[in-house]
């Protein structure tokens, strides 16, 4: 099982704060640092010191870290034209020496679109399908050739084959809990299929749908990595766990029901059940970005024994 740190900077984080978390991620042996791609806070927090842009952040971290993989969970198709996104991601991959992964989704947070003047079409799944086609198509185009695309949402004409990530095959993450279209999209384009904050009982059935979608197009289902993202709050005892739950505004009982929460043994037991359901990679949603001791504790007491 791989363990990745997943942050929500729209709740309030400067680049320096994110850098400290990424460096702690690297120092403590986690596989990757990922961040959400949002511009507006959620819930009863101030959001200060203000929003940060995901790919600007990752460009900085590409130069300020050495080992960990870097990515989004997930970027929204509403934020960027696909040709621009392909260039941005390829450049950050070059800057990192080939450590970038792209999570791409339809977007859902209409309030942030309204706040910052970003169009928010009612139907976006077709946009996602075309963006995946374009991004992967641009990256696969040889330098002595060109790429064109004509779709319902986007048209590209003779784009030069110079949009090249450092990685020969840059990993693509597709997520979502839809029962039909999402599995088919993951089967066509994804390196990894992710479920973010699912009900535990839903994980195995959804993976089975994705595996069936792979088989339907002749793809080996084991080619995909299967992951989940879950909030994490751990403590050496009940008092420490409760303190960390309170620090992120969550009830201990609710965290235990929906996340990776409690003492190390409780979390290890849950991870064992997730492994039985087919989970290979876990994104640990870390909400208190000032508590770097939490990361060290998770690494030493949980990841080392998982």
Write up this protein:
By secondary structure, the protein is α/β, with parallel strands linked by helices. The protein has one domain: Luciferase-like domain (TIM Barrel), CATH 3.20.20. It is 42% helix and 20% strand. The protein has helices spanning 15-27, 54-64, 82-96, 110-116, 125-140, 181-189, 200-216, 238-247, 252-258, 264-276, 292-301; strands spanning 2-7, 32-35, 69-72, 75-76, 100-105, 146-150, 155-160, 172-175, 192-196, 225-234, 260-262, 281-285. The strands form two sheets. The protein has an eight-stranded parallel β-barrel, surrounded by eight helices. The longest helix is centred in the C-terminal third of the chain and has 17 residues, at 200-216. The radius of gyration is 19 Å and the shape is globular. The model has no long low-confidence stretch (mean pLDDT 97).
Lay out the secondary structure.
Blueprint: E1 2-7, H1 15-27, E2 32-35, H2 54-64, E3 69-72, E4 75-76, H3 82-96, E5 100-105, H4 110-116, H5 125-140, E6 146-150, E7 155-160, E8 172-175, H6 181-189, E9 192-196, H7 200-216, E10 225-234, H8 238-247, H9 252-258, E11 260-262, H10 264-276, E12 281-285, H11 292-301
Parallel strand pairs: 1-2, 1-12, 2-3, 3-5, 4-5, 5-8, 8-9, 9-10, 10-11, 10-12
Antiparallel strand pairs: 6-7
Helix pairs in contact: 1-2, 2-3, 3-5, 6-7
